[in-house]
Amino acid sequence: MSAAASGPNPDGSVAKLIEIAEKPTFGQRLISWASRPPGRLYIPACGVVGLVLLFEDSVPAGHLPTFAIGLAGGLLLAGMGALRLGIALAVARPMIRYYWLRWVSAPVIAAVVLGLAVADVPLQTRLQASADALMDLRESTGDLTTIPLNGQRAGMYALRSISVSGDVTHYAVEGSGLFAPGGLAYSTEEIPEGVFVPGQGSKIYEHVSGDWYVWVDH
């Protein structure tokens, strides 16, 4: 019989040790997870959710699918971040100080997204990039009351229809509005905000910039 056959089996010994070793508890696993700095998946996920919310804010009156995804993803990531930070503050403060840049990345992303959304930067930027194309479309349609467009693009927006009501031109944007249809409106005359305007049906307006407004059909 050879020495290899009769000698001890290192692989078997290691397997036996692994088998009898205590498995970490859920609490130990949680502490181990929280002690590691955010990265790899968490920070990119925060960036993706931030971009989804910025896209939602660039659509007149909002965009329901991206709003739902962004809200659910944001709440999940915020909850995970708060839990992780709380545990890390209790058991791994040196790791927070050493990897401080990773720890502050998610709050910085959230602050930037919130600031841009509050300032209406996504909507104003997308509207400015599309304004010339929207005005060209208005001039080509003349004074007809309503023209269905079936998703035709004008600048960075896909439109359901364009209509003229008095001095106001309405652009119905595909997918716009969280709970009611919405879109953009152009008027050289000032439109009252937040109230029903005589002759404009059930639409309520909010000023964006210049002669441009957002409308929502209530």
Describe the structure.
By secondary structure, this protein is an alpha+beta fold. Helices cover about 55% and strands about 20% of the residues. The protein is built from eight helices and six strands, in the order H-H-H-H-H-H-H-H-E-E-E-E-E-E. The protein has a six-stranded antiparallel sheet with strand order 1-2-3-4-6-5. The protein is elongated. Residues about 1-5 have low confidence and may be disordered.
**Share of β-strand residues:** 15-25%
First-to-last CA distance: 90 Å
How would you write the strand order of the largest sheet? Answer: 1-2-3-4-6-5
Q: What's the mean pLDDT score?
A: 86
Shape: elongated
Q: Compute the gyration radius: what is it? A: 28 Å
SS-derived structural category = alpha+beta
Main beta sheet: 6 strands, antiparallel
Strand segment count: 6
Number of helices: 8
Can you lay out the helices and strands and say which pair or pack?
Layout: H1 3-6, H2 10-20, H3 26-35, H4 42-58, H5 64-91, H6 93-98, H7 100-118, H8 121-141, E1 146-154, E2 157-165, E3 168-173, E4 182-186, E5 203-209, E6 212-217
Antiparallel strand pairs: 1-2, 2-3, 3-4, 4-6, 5-6
